[in-house]
Amino acid sequence: MRRCSRWIWLVLIVLSALPVRAASLAEGFSRLPAGAVVLLMPLDIELFSVSAGGILEPQAEWTERAHANLRQAFLTRSSALKINFMPLPGEVDEVVERLNRLHGAVGQAIALHHQGGFALPSKEGRLDWSLGEEAALMRERTGADYALFAFVRDSYASSERVAMMVVGLLLGVGLGGGMQVGYASLVDLSTGRVVWFNTLLRASGDLRDPEKARESCDALLDKFPE
Fold this sequence. Notes:
Layout: H1 2-16, E1 24-25, E2 37-40, E3 44-50, E4 56-58, H2 60-81, E5 84-87, H3 94-113, H4 136-142, E6 146-157, H5 159-170, E7 180-188, E8 194-202, H6 210-220
Parallel strand pairs: 2-5, 2-6, 3-6
Antiparallel strand pairs: 1-8, 3-4, 6-7, 7-8
């Protein structure tokens, strides 16, 4: 329930940011240095079905499939982008989980205060956010120069919800279906600074399908600083 609530809150944040801005770069950063290694952090993904009444119901099997599909899409995309993506070596431990949770919170703040309608005067329009010094632990462990984080929540209308949407249209009432929403960040592991950030918000896409997951990967990596 807590994860579901966080997903709903994120939807509201990104909706407040419409129209969605293009990917953002931190001041002084324009592209990856030659030969830079980018650590692909474990993807923060959860999939839901939308019940007839509009309730989001977590789907563990879909989520597991989406993790595999999107991870493979990122690793495949690295060749096209000419980027050296490194899968996380070893098991996910407390440090990795903590950084992923932190990125989830920082990403929400960026969506709201940088790309959304609630700009912070102290930022002066700059992408000026950090995951802190703990990010350097991943550099020490893996030797990577940067880390790519991704947060995605995807939902799909159930057959009952589709039926309700049809009835709603007949009655002149618009009912929402599924939505794909999230963000991706490139973090400098030397400093913890977020140097690139992009949001994703749309009513299309399907992470359960490998081909469509590749398309979602392309959308998340739009204007990636290769």
